[in-house]
Design a protein that fits this description.
Elements (H helix, E strand, L loop, with lengths): L1 H19 L20 H15 L6 H14 L4 H8 L4 H7 L4 H15 L6
Helix pairs in contact: 4-5
């Protein structure tokens, strides 16, 4: 999904570049202002909150998306080392300590998988 979104973004950015002409600043960024410059943090926050309101979702910080993403990955069985790498945590202990509330469900799932592998019925 992310790669598809980035591929769709490229032609739009090329159109913005053409429209800006000589005023375009080539920063190498994917998401920019219409002039190619970085988008201001306050603009991102404002648009994010507007989208939340439009979708009927209660106010939450952008950083909460990071926590939700990590929790879903772990709950879906993504290996903690992979989650650690995506989040950029220096140590696996930080990932596991931060998201330990998700791990108990993973332990039960692992026990059930072992039971099935050994010929027993899962709990």
């Amino acid at each position: 999904m992310a790669v598809d979104a980035l591929r769709r973004r490229r032609p739009a950015q090329l159109q913005e570049r053409l429209a800006a002409g000589g005023r375009w600043v080539d920063t190498g960024l994917v998401f920019t202002t219409k002039w190619g410059t970085p988008v201001e943090h306050s603009t991102v926050i404002r648009k994010y909150h507007k989208l939340l309101k439009h979708a009927g979702i209660r106010h939450q910080r952008i950083h909460d998306l990071r926590h939700a993403f990590a929790s879903v990955m772990l709950a879906e069985g993504v290996h903690p080392r992979v989650v650690q790498g995506i989040l950029g945590h220096a140590n696996i202990s930080l990932t596991l300590d931060t998201y330990s509330h998700v791990v108990p469900g993973l332990q039960e799932d692992a026990a059930n998988r072992i039971a099935v592998a050994l010929g027993s019925k899962p709990k």
